[in-house]
Write a structure and sequence with these properties.
Layout: H1 5-13, H2 17-24, H3 39-50, H4 64-71, H5 78-96, H6 105-111, H7 117-123, H8 138-162, E1 177-179, E2 182-187, E3 197-202, E4 208-212, H9 213-246, H10 248-274, E5 288-293, E6 304-308, E7 312-317, H11 323-338, E8 357-361, H12 374-385, E9 391-395, H13 404-420, E10 424-428, H14 432-438, E11 444-452, E12 457-464, H15 472-478, H16 483-493, H17 495-568, H18 573-603, E13 612-615, E14 618-626, E15 629-634, E16 639-643, E17 648-649, E18 672-674, H19 680-697, E19 701-705, H20 712-723, E20 729-732, E21 742-746
Parallel strand pairs: 7-10, 7-11, 8-9, 9-10, 18-19
Antiparallel strand pairs: 1-2, 2-4, 3-4, 5-6, 11-12, 13-14, 13-17, 14-15, 15-16, 19-21, 20-21
Helix pairs in contact: 3-10, 4-10, 5-7, 5-10, 8-9, 13-14, 14-17, 17-18, 19-20
Amino acid sequence: MQDNPSYQSLIDKLDLSAFISSFEGFFARKKPICLEGDRVSLGAFIKELDTLVFTPPPKLKALDTEILHLKKFGVLKLTEIFEFIKLIRYFLYLKSLQQIPENTHLYKYLQNIQIPQELKDLSKNFENDAQIKAGIYEDFDSLQQSISRQKSQIARTMSELLNAPKLATYLIDKQIHYINGNEALLLKAGFNHVIKGIIIARSQGGFFYLLPNEIHSIHQKIAALDDKLQACVYEICKNISKLLGKHILFLKYINKEFDRFDHLQARVKFAQTYNLEFITNKATDKVIILKDFSHPALSHPKPISIDFSSALLMITGVNAGGKTMLLKSILSSVFLHKYLLPMKINAAASKIPNFKNISTIIADPQNSKNDISTFAGRMLHFSQILNLPDLLIGIDEIELGTDADEASSLYKVLLEVLLDKEAKIIVTTHHKRLSSLMAQDSRIQMCAAIFDADRQMPTYEFLQGSIGKSYAFETAKRYGIPENLIAKAKLVYGQDKEKLNTLIEKSAQLEISLKQKAHELETQIAQYERKKIEQQELITALKADYTKEKSQLQNTYQKALDALKAVIKDKEISSLHKGINNANKILSSLKKQSELQAHAQKTQKEINIGNRVKYGSAKGVVIGKNGDSCLLELDGGIKLKINAKELKVIANTKLQAPTKLHYSPPTKANISLDLHGLRAQEAIEQLDKFLSDALIAGFDEVIVYHGIGTGKLSFAIKEFLSTHPKVLSFCDAPPQMGGFGTKIIKL
């Protein structure tokens, strides 16, 4: 298969070539890195494989040509047949694993692969080195044995010749020399009186390499036997090819499934080897959240954390401060996620959506071959992406190649066109004009590379919501430009220009600040609207309760009246009296119930300010009282004026003082914990207690040793720490402290 040129070009531009090449080394056979299928199902497969101890598949040849050959009734070679045997054997191995739970996707997937019995039997006929096992084909075994006997005869004959007394005078040494695959003796001149043979070479000393006639005769016999053996092997291959041809549809299917499984196992083994994580969550929007992401091209990276929730991220600030690497990091994370590849990241705290199209404008397209300028090349690239749907585009040094002021106006229009088409954009720039023009757009998110003025160097960190300064003079000084030249440059630059840049920065930051305050006000208004809705819902619920009680009362009286009417229709006086008595019973029960309620109200304690009361199904506190009218504040914050008769005092009305908790700090609190050799559940229990003791002891940082092993224990610990409410962050320790097998935890 040929790689997609644009696909490979993107890998090169994002500095991912070495990383992707390293990943491809885990494939059993070469293939593109793209993996087809539903991301949710594939993510579930990866999680299950990560907990499974299994042997990766053997290196395997691509079998598309061989399958086509079988389809045309061709005969495969023995080595080609063995490639199919390896394929079948590996799936038999996977199906034999006892540790796969029955309720998993992997178990169900393997159960659906039904290998024909003929192919199972065929796989037993070969040794691991692709040789046919003895005892399967009688003629083949007989020829093999005959050839073996003839080779043994050569060894015996050569031994006899070397020890023959008549030949001792002519022997240079008692070694068997191999010349072009033939056994030869090294002899002096005159040997022809005692031994006959064929001279096949001369030594540098003028001696003769002789192939004895006896050995030559045996070689001829072996050649004849070998011809018969090859004919026998051909017949075997012919029969096996015919058998494989009967199952051509299954072989096509299992060959495709091997690549599918190879994709998954390679990702799991790659992640385990380099301690990487997968982003398998399904994003419902286009928000990109990265937590502790490290670009794989950097040897000692400073992890990046960013919340890219807007449509356009504009990165400004100091030269050589990491702007381009931030752009590449965001694009790289999306690219790796798109192809379900693991990365160095805090997966639990990160979120990456999927994009159909990912593009970059990073490299300078100008060269003598394509006869195109930098700016023209960028315009050509823009014309190609303007109509791409679902696009993520990164543009580095956007004004490169032309006048900055003209470029700012042009790019403002182009970026707005892309934004209107819902593209996600990342831009780096040194110039303030474009930043100031775009800062007024609510879809723009500003980010500035930070410069340490005291140390006169960038920090490689970023400040959200700010426009940064390029610090060109400071950077020039840091890289060796003499101070007197920098001083002259500052004079040429002028104070007015510096003041203008400062004004632009302050104006843009003020715009950003106003937008943030407007957002806060909108949030408060939304909260008040929610409270208003809650109050209306409460009033509606109270009205419904009142209507329900009124309806129940009317129904009770109606039953009594209906009982009287039914008896009045009866002519017998006794029935009339009986009906009246029934009506009296109904009314008496209602009267008794009313008296009980009235008694309960009379016996209820007098309601005072501060009492906690119940009104219908709502609860609250009395905050004011005027006669029988009480001002009630409900738990939801709503205030109502209610008659005291409608309120019911709840027991324990006065708020009790908070209970004082007494604890004894652990007597032996440690700052480290060793979990080597423990099962995942045991390790999590000890880790939970250890963290509790550390928190009580007041530790703000601890270390846990768990080792590397199969990766199961490391995975379980990361999952637990990601969800622990008191863990601020965690990371792998430096190599000298344990590296991937150790976690440093901040509490």
